[in-house]
Structures are given as C-alpha cells and as structure tokens.
Design brief:
This protein has helices at 2-10, 12-28, 33-40, 48-67, 77-95, 100-119, 126-142, 149-174. It is mainly alpha-helical. It is globular. The model has no long low-confidence stretch (mean pLDDT 92).
Length: 184
C-alpha cells in the first residue's frame, strides 16, 4: 500500500506495473489473506498500525479479485480503468498538434508495438501491449533470464514512450493539458 501510494504520485505506469505485480503476489498466496499476512506482510518492519493498514489494503484487493473473477488471471477493474485512461490520453495526444515530441516517440515505438501485437493478443490496445511487454521483461529479469539485445532495444524505446505518456498523465491530473490551439 505504501509503495503503491508513492508510485501513484510519481508515475502512473510504474504504479500500474506494481499493481499487476501485487495481483500476481496475491495469486501466489492463493488469495489467502492469512498467508499474505504471515508469509509476506510480517517480513516488513512495519508498526502494528501499518501492518493493520496493509492487511486491510490487501484484504480489499483479495475481495475485489474474488468478486471480479481475477483469482487465476486478469486484472482488477481499478487497474483496467487506469489503462483505459492512459489509452484515452494517448489518443488525445496523438490527435493534437501541440505534442509533436510525443507523436515522434509513438511512431518510433510503433514497429515494436505491431510486432508484439502480432505475437500476442491482437485485441489488446497499444498502451496495454506496451505495459504487458514491460511487465514481461520485468518478470524475466526477476527470474534472471537472458534478454536478447533486440528485446532490450525494444524495451528501452517502449520505456521512453510509456514514461512520456506517464508524465503527460501526471501533468494532466495536476495541471490539465491543453490539446488544441484555441484553449488559453
């Protein structure tokens, strides 16, 4: 919970990848709050109050995963909404002439997106495709598996692109972005 709160303020993409990791962590513990408490939360140097807050947070996530049918796979609705918000912002940025650097970065990364979509789920939108790639490589790194130079290059470009989108997302939430010329 504490990590999620900090990441959400800093980078929506990092927050989302962290939340996907939390979903997988909950699955790894069989969606059991008792196991999460004893085998995970108790390993941290939290105060009793902090532990209770963590237990409540994980408890809510476990409940949502059960209610939303995400025990085995998939993402929570709260996370799907963020992906959709990022996708909506992505589309607005592409349609506006005020964000040429974003457009340039998108077209730089587009061949990688096309390649990933051809290999994977074609129904997944471009932003989720990029996030899936970042998450997949993160998991490979955690498993200490080799990542090819081509994949490293693609991930570097995708990271830059998603980082740019994430920065615009934060700016839009805090200051608001102006998408066309007649807005002052």
């Amino acid at each position: 919970m504490y990590i999620a709160q900090e990441l959400r303020k800093k980078s929506i993409a990092e927050y989302l990848l962290y939340m996907w990791q939390v979903e997988d962590l909950i699955r790894a513990y069989g969606c059991s709050l008792t196991r999460i408490r004893h085998e995970y939360i108790d390993r941290f140097q939290y105060t009793d109050e902090q532990k209770e807050e963590e237990i409540d947070w994980f408890g809510n996530l476990v409940r949502m995963m059960n209610e939303e049918g995400c025990r085995e796979k998939g993402h929570l609705q709260i996370n799907k909404i963020i992906v959709q918000d990022m996708t909506d912002l992505h589309n607005q940025l592409l349609q506006s002439p005020k964000f040429p650097f974003y457009n340039a970065e998108y077209y730089k990364v587009l061949p990688f997106i096309v390649e990933l979509r051809n290999k994977g789920d074609k129904e997944v939108n471009e932003i989720e495709t990029c996030l899936d790639a970042l998450y997949g490589v993160m998991l490979l790194r955690l498993q200490k598996k080799t990542i090819s130079p081509d994949t490293e290059h693609a991930i570097k470009e995708i990271t830059t692109f998603i980082g740019m989108l994430s920065d615009y997302y934060q700016k839009d939430k805090t200051e608001g972005l102006k998408f066309d010329d007649d807005e002052q």
